[in-house]
């Protein structure tokens, strides 16, 4: 049974997070304040006193900081400007550096790694598990990687190389090599003695992997089965012979959907021949989902990569250029369309006031359709056989909403301006614009997917720009025809 997350607990957690950040900021400010006051005082042996005070403050702050969880320290680092971030980073004990690095976002981690010395980098890397080190490897300076790999035990080195060889969006890149496996011909007593000798069980290990003498996966055995059955019972009699397993080259997106669908906690990972290589835990899947959701939010806004909020102005600005340039081009086209109907707008000034309505509601409708299509693509619910059905459905929704809200706005226009022709233009423009919005919302993410791009990438900007442009063209074109 899954634990319930009471709203009061969530509120308490958020309050604790805010208090933690405030506490760290206060400690850093206090250290700077005390140091500044001492430096301004006139006293004998001023430099010695100043050094001792700074050292005392730093030790106090170090003791406070290193009691926090690595994830909390990482959050604090991401929330501080560069100068204070470096100040806090220097106070973290060497034994915590690796755990904190793994918790950091990519841009902040890259910034800190760039400023770390060789020995500090090596010590931080030695603290990591093989799969974590493989994730960190691409961001490490290339000149220390050979020495780092050479310093590892043979088994660890091979595991790091194996994990690093898989694409970042594959199961192999996230699999954990620390697995519990037992032979299919063992008894439960033998399994229990093995677990006692081992002395620990990996986190999120709800099952043991069952293999034959050649290492081929044969099934899984729950820990509960070991405890409640007779010790002479053979593993083969109690194991699940048809477990849900994943191959190293499986897509992480599909795997994450499977974890959600089947309520998995851990699952075996096998190679193309069926041999057990590792396992995939729900914690790693959740981290992947969280990271992808952040990427999707940024991609919808046209940002190419996750951004450090305290990154240099030049770097942050460059990250936003491509889609701003595209948006500017679309806006320029829209302005030229409006310019072509200057005479019409001059004759009926009310058109200028009504013009944004259809464009705005078209953008909203297009983004609604886009969200549905992107979700369907992510869950692999949309394919060639049902694409036309979805497209027709969205077009019909566009017609229905256009008639409904167009009639409401047409009535409002008639009441405000006492002109039936303006009301007719509003109804017609609303219907056509919402149909175009539905068409755009479906086709753009599908086209991006077919082109091998992320369907989320810039979809919101493209749809808003296209619906605005066509909204102006449709509304003013109907106005010119009817008036």
Produce a short descriptive summary.
This protein has 483 residues and is mainly α. The protein is built from 23 helices and six strands.
Structure description:
This protein has 483 residues and is mainly alpha-helical. It folds into three domains: 7-167, MgtE N-terminal domain-like (MgtE N-terminal fold), CATH 1.25.60.10; 181-283, CBS-domain, CATH 3.10.580; 320-482, Tetracycline Repressor, domain 2. Helix content is 68%, strand content 6%. The protein is built from 23 helices and six strands. The protein has a three-stranded mixed β-sheet. Strands 4-5-6 form a three-stranded mixed β-sheet.
- Subunit arrangement of the protein: single chain
Count of DSSP E strands?
A: 6
Biggest sheet architecture: 3 strands, mixed
Q: Segments where pLDDT lies below 50 for 5+ residues?
A: 1-5
* CATH second-level architecture of the largest domain: Orthogonal Bundle
Estimate the helix proportion, in percent.
55-70%
What would you give as the CATH superfamily of the largest domain?
Answer: SLC41 divalent cation transporters, integral membrane domain
Structural class: mainly alpha
Q: How large, in whole angstroms, is the Cα Rg?
A: 30 Å
Dominant shape: globular
What CATH calls the topology of the largest domain is: Tetracycline Repressor, domain 2
Helix and strand pattern = HHHHHHHHHHHEHEEHHEHEEHHHHHHHH
Biggest sheet: strand arrangement = 1-2-3
Proportion of strand residues: 5-15%
Terminal residue distance: 67 Å
Average pLDDT, all residues: 83
């Amino acid at each position: 049974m899954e634990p319930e997350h009471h709203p009061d607990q969530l509120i308490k957690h958020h309050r604790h997070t805010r208090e933690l950040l405030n506490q760290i900021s206060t400690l850093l400010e206090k250290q700077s304040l005390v140091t500044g006051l001492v430096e301004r005082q006139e006293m004998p042996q001023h430099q010695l006193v100043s050094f001792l005070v700074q050292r005392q403050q730093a030790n106090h702050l170090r003791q406070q900081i290193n009691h926090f969880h690595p994830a909390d320290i990482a959050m604090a680092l991401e929330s501080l400007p560069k100068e204070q971030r470096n100040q806090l980073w220097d106070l973290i004990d060497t034994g915590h550096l690796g755990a904190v690095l793994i918790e950091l976002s990519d841009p902040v981690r890259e910034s800190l790694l760039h400023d770390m010395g060789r020995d500090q980098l090596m010590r931080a890397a030695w603290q990591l598990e093989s799969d974590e080190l493989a994730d960190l490897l691409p961001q490490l300076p290339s000149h220390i990687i050979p020495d780092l790999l050479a310093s590892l035990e043979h088994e660890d080195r091979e595991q790091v190389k194996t994990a690093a060889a898989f694409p970042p969006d594959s199961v192999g890149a996230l699999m954990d090599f620390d697995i519990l496996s037992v032979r299919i011909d063992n008894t439960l007593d033998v399994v229990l003695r093995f677990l006692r000798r081992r002395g620990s069980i990996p986190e999120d290990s709800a099952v043991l992997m069952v293999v034959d003498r050649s290492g081929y996966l044969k099934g899984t055995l729950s820990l509960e089965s070991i405890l409640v059955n007779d010790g002479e019972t053979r593993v083969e009699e109690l194991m699940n012979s048809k477990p849900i397993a994943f191959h190293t080259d499986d897509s992480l997106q599909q795997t994450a959907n499977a974890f959600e669908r089947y309520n998995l906690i851990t699952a075996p990972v096998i190679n193309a021949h069926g041999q057990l290589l590792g396992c995939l835990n729900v914690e790693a899947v959740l981290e992947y989902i969280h990271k992808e959701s952040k990427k999707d939010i940024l991609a919808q806004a046209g940002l190419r990569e996750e951004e450090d909020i305290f990154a240099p102005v030049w770097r942050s600005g460059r990250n936003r250029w491509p889609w701003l340039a595209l948006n500017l081009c679309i806006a320029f086209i829209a302005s030229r369309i409006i310019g072509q109907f200057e005479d019409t707008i001059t004759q009926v000034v009310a058109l200028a006031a009504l013009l944004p309505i259809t464009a705005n509601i078209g953008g909203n409708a297009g983004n609604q359709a886009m969200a549905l299509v992107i979700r369907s693509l992510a869950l692999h619910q949309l394919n060639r056989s049902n694409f036309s059905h979805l497209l027709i459905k969205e077009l019909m929704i566009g017609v229905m909403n256009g008639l409904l809200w167009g009639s409401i706005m047409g009535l409002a226009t008639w009441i405000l301006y006492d002109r039936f022709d303006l009301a007719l233009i509003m109804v017609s423009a609303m219907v056509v614009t919402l149909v175009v919005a539905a068409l755009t919302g479906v086709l753009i993410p599908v086209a991006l997917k077919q082109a091998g791009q992320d369907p989320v990438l810039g979809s919101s900007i493209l749809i808003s720009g296209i619906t605005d442009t066509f909204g102006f063209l449709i509304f003013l074109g109907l106005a010119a025809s009817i008036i």
